[in-house]
Design a protein that fits this description.
Number of domains: 2
Number of helices: 15
Order of helices and strands: HHEHHEHEHEHEHEHEEHHHHEHEEEH
Distance between the termini: 49 Å
Strand content: 5-15%
Length: 389
C-alpha cells in the first residue's frame, strides 16, 4: 500500500487541529464523564445536547411495541420488492399527521433533502435557499441542476427579489421551519404569500419542529395554516427513532419514487424499524403534556440566560434549541468541558456547522429534564463564561 492516503489524511487533520476544528469519534466518553460528575456532586445529570425533545428515544421496547412480526430487513429497494405493509402504514400515519395527501419514507433527513432537491432542481429551474439552511439542503442544492441563489438569513425582501430573476423552469424556495443551530423561526406565512405572488413552490424542512410545534406536534406549517408544496420531516429527533419522510401531493410522491436517487438506489428501511416508528409517531401525536413541559423549560432557560447577560444571538426562537454564542472555537470547547464537570452535557458547535466566528454551545431542552434544570444550566453557563472571559 502506498503512503498517499496516510500523508493526505495526516496533513488534513493537522490543518483542522490548528484551527481548533478537529473532531474525535464520540465513544460515549463525554456522556459518561458528565454522568459521573453529576453522581459525584449528588446532582441530577442533565443532557442538553440531544435532539430527543420529548424523551421518546430513551423509551424501552415493550410488548405493546413488539416488532417480532416484522422482518429486520426489506431485502431490496422499494422499487424492486422492498415495500412492506409496515412502510405503507407508517407513510399513511405521517401524511395524516402533517395533513398532506401523501408521504414517502427515506432512510434519513439528509437523504430526504438531497433526494427532494435533486429531483425538483431540473435544468433551467431556480432554487432560493436561506443562508443558514442545514447542510443536507445545501448539498441537495449542489447536486441539483438548477440555478441556486443563497439569500441572507430570514431576508424576505431578498427572497422576493431573487424569485423575480430569470428562470426557464420552475422556481422553489427552501427553508427550515425551525433553524437547527439558531433555533429561530422564519415567517412561513409571508414566504407562502411571496411564493404564490411569484409563481414559486415552497419547500419546508420541519426537522426540528415536528413533534414540538403545532396541533399534535404536527409542525409549524400546521400551526400556522401554511400548506407547503413539499414538507420534509425527520423521525430521529422528537419522534425518537430513525428515518425521515417527504410529504405533499400524490404527484410529488410519484416523482420522488422515480427521481429521488437516495430513495431509488437504497435498500428500503427496516420493516421492523418502520413498525416501531409508527408507534412512536402515535406517541408523539399524543404527547401534549410533554410539549407543554418542553416549551415551559425552553422559556425558563432563555429568561434565566438573558438575566445573566448571556448572548443568545438575534434569533426569534421559542422552541427547544437555545444557542449560546461564544465566538472562538477553543472557548466553546472549554465551556462544554466545564459544564460536563458539573454534570451537564452540552455540545460545542464550530465551523463548518456554523459560520466562522460564531462558535457556540447548542443547548437543547428536553421534556425529561428534572425540575429546576433550566435555572441550573443557565447558572453554570454564566459561571463558565465569567471564568473564561
Amino acid at each position: 500500500m502506498s503512503q498517499v492516503l496516510e500523508a493526505f489524511a495526516t496533513a488534513e487533520l493537522s490543518a483542522l487541529d490548528a484551527r481548533g476544528l478537529l473532531r474525535s469519534p464520540d465513544d460515549g466518553g463525554p456522556r459518561r464523564a458528565a454522568q459521573a460528575a453529576a453522581a459525584t456532586l449528588g446532582l441530577p445529570f442533565i443532557d442538553a445536547s440531544s435532539n430527543d425533545y420529548l424523551g421518546l428515544a430513551s423509551e424501552s421496547v415493550s410488548r405493546e411495541t413488539s416488532v417480532q412480526d416484522h422482518s429486520a430487513g426489506a431485502g431490496a429497494s422499494r422499487l424492486i420488492h422492498g415495500t412492506r405493509p409496515a412502510h405503507e402504514d407508517l407513510e399513511a400515519e405521517l401524511a395524516d399527521w402533517v395533513d398532506l395527501p401523501e408521504a414517502l419514507l427515506f432512510s434519513s433527513g439528509y437523504a430526504a433533502n438531497v433526494g427532494l432537491l435533486q429531483a425538483l432542481g431540473t435544468p433551467g429551474s431556480l432554487i432560493v435557499s436561506d443562508a443558514l439552511n442545514h447542510a443536507s439542503i445545501v448539498d441537495g442544492c449542489r447536486l441539483a441542476k438548477a440555478r441556486v441563489v443563497v439569500v441572507p438569513h430570514l431576508d424576505l425582501t431578498t427572497v422576493a427579489s431573487a424569485l423575480r430573476g430569470p428562470s426557464e423552469g420552475p422556481k422553489w424556495v427552501v427553508v427550515e421551519s425551525c433553524f437547527s443551530m439558531d433555533g429561530d423561526l422564519p415567517n412561513l406565512g409571508w414566504l407562502r404569500k411571496i411564493c404564490d405572488q411569484e409563481g414559486a413552490g415552497l419547500v419546508v424542512d420541519e426537522a426540528h419542529a415536528l413533534g414540538v410545534f403545532g396541533p399534535e406536534g404536527a409542525g409549524r406549517c400546521r400551526e400556522l395554516g401554511v400548506v407547503p408544496d413539499a414538507l420534509v420531516g425527520t423521525l430521529g429527533k422528537a419522534v425518537g427513532v430513525q428515518g425521515a419522510f417527504v410529504a405533499g401531493a400524490r404527484v410529488l410522491r410519484t416523482l420522488l419514487w422515480n427521481r429521488a436517487r437516495p430513495f431509488v438506489f437504497s435498500t428500503a428501511p427496516s420493516p421492523a424499524l418502520a413498525a416501531r416508528a409508527l408507534f412512536h409517531v402515535q406517541r408523539a401525536r399524543a404527547s401534549d403534556a410533554k410539549r407543554e413541559r418542553l416549551h415551559a423549560f425552553a422559556q425558563s432557560l432563555r429568561v434565566a440566560l438573558r438575566q445573566t447577560g448571556v448572548d443568545l444571538g438575534g434569533g426569534s426562537g421559542s422552541g427547544p434549541i437555545v444557542p449560546v454564542i461564544v465566538g472562538a472555537n477553543e472557548r466553546a470547547v472549554r465551556l462544554a468541558e466545564q459544564l460536563a464537570g458539573v454534570g451537564i452535557l452540552a455540545q460545542a458547535i464550530r465551523f463548518p456547522t456554523v459560520p466562522e466566528g460564531t462558535a457556540r454551545l447548542r443547548l437543547t431542552v428536553s421534556a425529561t429534564w428534572p425540575d429546576g434544570a433550566p435555572e441550573r444550566v443557565a447558572a453554570e453557563v454564566a459561571r463558565g463564561l465569567r471564568e473564561r472571559a
